[in-house]
């Protein structure tokens, strides 16, 4: 089963990486960019019987720093 | 307008970060994880009239290394 974990910084948390990308875009001449936030996209290939609770536990224990990050679990259809 | 850019390594490209996460998950006792791929999730807040071509150019010039990475542009509905 394919699972996608979207990890992004909580609103209000300073995002230096996003700032740097924003400045670089402006330096390349791309106007009209108001804000940039950079997060992580983790694609897992797990056994079909992996439960939502186990996925959440993986996120809380390792994949996301829940103090400053939010995570969203997107389960793709299991390959038939 | 909110835009999400999903940047992930091309299939076949070695993913040391994904490997490290995979080993760490196994170390924490999570069995049943077959593969882990780590990519970037870039959330842009851009002017509503930003074209798809401009977004692709941002990706090709800065946001993704097209030699080893694929990118996918996901445009969210413009806030009314």
Note down, in words, how this protein is organized.
2 copies of one chain form a homodimer. The first copy, chain A, is built from 2 helices and 3 strands, in the order E-H-E-H-E. The radius of gyration of chain A is 16 Å and the shape is elongated. The mean pLDDT of chain A is 93. The first copy, chain A, has helices spanning 16-27, 52-63; strands at residues 2-9, 33-46, 69-75. Chain A has a single domain (2-75), classed as Phosphoribosylformylglycinamidine synthase subunit PurS (Mth169, Chain: A). By secondary structure, chain A is an alpha+beta fold. The first copy, chain A, is 30% helix and 36% strand. Chain A has a 3-stranded antiparallel β-sheet with strand order 2-1-3. Strand 2 of chain A pairs antiparallel with strand 2 (33-46) of chain B, so a sheet runs across the interface. Chains A, B: Pathway: Purine metabolism; IMP biosynthesis via de novo pathway; 5-amino-1-(5-phospho-D-ribosyl)imidazole from N(2)-formyl-N(1)-(5-phospho-D-ribosyl)glycinamide: step 1/2. Chains A, B: This is Phosphoribosylformylglycinamidine synthase subunit PurS.
